[in-house]
Write a structure and sequence with these properties.
The protein is an alpha/beta fold and 307 residues long. It is built from eight helices and 14 strands.
Length: 307
């Protein structure tokens, strides 16, 4: 898993400023980027940056970055860019695209040895966020899954709209750092290198912004866990509760495996992979959520052991 290329997903409602942010990162990010887009007519890349396009559909940009155009298959696009050795890959979602299948594609066992999901960057329009979410509640999905949120166009928002937008974002995603911005001008180091899907990830400390009931607790169990029960626990207590369980991460000792299984989830996005830790070690799972009953989770976790 060493040397994997970090991948950042950029999402947000139509008109929030994703294109502007992507161009800002390409020009100011200080690394050789690969960018996955759809067709030239929809590309978020500044046309002045595009130098030429080769027969593989790879656009070479004037600053040394790359852009994979005209690809319907995300994994295929990622592997085409892989051969050009980018240092970081950006995937720009369309306005209402669900980030879950995109993130799961990067986390797929076939792609995981080569790519690391660095984080999901959500972009919100400060002036129109309240109305946007009222008229299009599906627009909240990309923001809810975001590892970090750029509250864009703050120069166009009156103070009351800005206050309302910040409150809505804190309610939608209490764990994501929030950066107000004008034309997407956020220092790239705040948005890249997040390692938001690494096991050692910790939420940034901003307790005064957290929604009521936000909590963190750790579940521990000795002995081997039964695989069918583990699958049912993940489904029932983690994945099925995306509005209550924001993050979960830990090592699970599962019967039939010589090493512990490394589990991570962000709402409905999850990954499982083998670790180097022996399966004899106790299982530990950290859960971060809102208004959860730790006692319920503790009882369910202990029940994963052989009866």
């Amino acid at each position: 898993m060493q040397g994997r290329i970090p991948v950042s997903i950029v999402g947000g409602f139509l008109g929030a400023g994703k294109t502007t942010l992507v161009n800002h990162l390409i020009q100011k990010g200080g690394r050789r980027f690969g960018v996955v887009v759809n067709e030239f007519g929809e590309t978020g890349i500044d046309a002045s940056l595009i130098e030429n396009v080769d027969t593989d559909g790879i656009a070479e940009l004037t600053n040394g970055c790359l852009c994979c155009v005209g690809r319907e298959d995300l994994v295929s696009a990622l592997f085409k860019l892989l051969g050009r050795r980018p240092e970081h890959i950006l995937i720009e979602l369309s306005g209402l695209a669900d980030p879950v299948p995109v993130a799961q594609a990067v986390l797929d066992p076939f792609a995981r040895p080569h790519f690391e999901l660095d984080g999901i960057i959500g972009v919100a329009d400060a002036r129109n966020l309240a109305r946007t979410l009222q008229d299009n509640p599906e627009g909240a999905v990309q923001l809810a899954y975001a590892s970090v949120v750029v509250l864009n166009k703050t120069d166009l928002a009156p103070p009351e709209a800005l206050t309302e937008a910040e409150a809505l974002l804190r309610q939608t995603n209490p764990l994501a750092p929030l950066y107000p911005a004008v034309r997407g001008q956020v220092p790239p180091e705040r948005l890249l290198g997040l390692r938001a899907f690494a096991l050692d990830w910790q939420p940034k400390a901003h307790p005064h912004h957290h929604t009521p009931g936000l909590q963190t607790f750790t579940l521990r169990a000795e002995g081997l866990l039964e695989r069918p029960k583990v699958n049912a626990f993940i489904d029932q207590y983690l994945i099925a509760r995306p509005n209550a369980v924001y993050r979960a991460k830990g090592y699970l000792s599962v019967r039939g495996f010589a090493q512990q299984v490394l589990f991570q989830s962000v709402r409905e996005i999850f990954s499982l992979e083998m670790s180097k830790r022996p399966a004899e070690a106790p299982s530990e799972l950290v859960v971060i959520g809102r208004n959860l009953d730790p006692g319920e989770y503790e009882a369910a976790f202990q029940a994963l052991r052989q009866a």
